[in-house]
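Handout, section B. The chain below has 305 residues.
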Amino acid sequence: MKTIAALFFLALAGSIAAQQAVTPTNRIELFNGTNFDGFKFCMKNDADPMKTWSVTNGAIHCNGSAIGYLRTEQSYNNYVLYVGWRFLKIAPKADNTGVLVHMQLPDKVWPMCIQIQGKHDRQGDLFLMGGAESKEHMGMDANTAIPMRSESAEYSVGTLNTSETICNGNDVKVYINDKLMNETTECTDTNGFVGIQSEGADFEIRKMYLEPSTNPDEFFKVITDAQTGEYAVVNSDKTTVSLKDKNGNVIWATDVAREIKSDPYLSDGKIIYMQLSNNFLSVELGRGAVTLDKRTGKIMIIIHD
């Protein structure tokens, strides 16, 4: 009896440990391209998940034949989730999936979580499921979505799409193909498992990984002196700047900054301040401002009147 009790408490301790949320400090590959290591399945009516999910040619394939989901074994918080996916084909009532974040136990169809809608042409709607709530959803029922803010950014069937979900504290922001589609704040859950929904659609996932998410309260700030931060290096005279990724690779070199400074409309001012956010670096330069979109590498110059 003591042995059985000891085994029970060891299993319970392991379960609790697995549920403790991890905050990524570097890139975490959720899908290894080979198998489902690191994932668990929950399927309606105990359907065999291997009849719905498979790994083929380095991609997760879901044929949508049974309702349910796969999810990570590990719980996470404060991250950016990237999913590269595409519909293989769609048909009426066979065009639905979704990305699930902040998933809570127990596993069931459906658990408490936030769903980034995956239905064809509705990518970006947000559903608060299983009792989850947020400021923007308060007063709505579970079947009513926070509607996406603009027209669909989804590509044509068969083309690879990118879903980017930024989870910062109790806020969730969604980009589809680099276009901001939705945001919800003051969510009741701030961490949980990450999953993909099977709900009729025939689709595949080519990539699925997490990256650290900057906290705007910490990183959206003014830099006024020589400082090496998580993203930027500014020299002491505040005239040049280089932008680095989290691995230390320079993605915006100082010579580019000097080239911008040589612009006659901007050359009369030193760098006054910089603002850092999830996807943008803004540099105020006396008579103008320069904004770098870190996702696309595009630079925009704004001239003050």
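Note. Helices lie at 2-19, 216-219, 254-261. Compare this with the example in section A.
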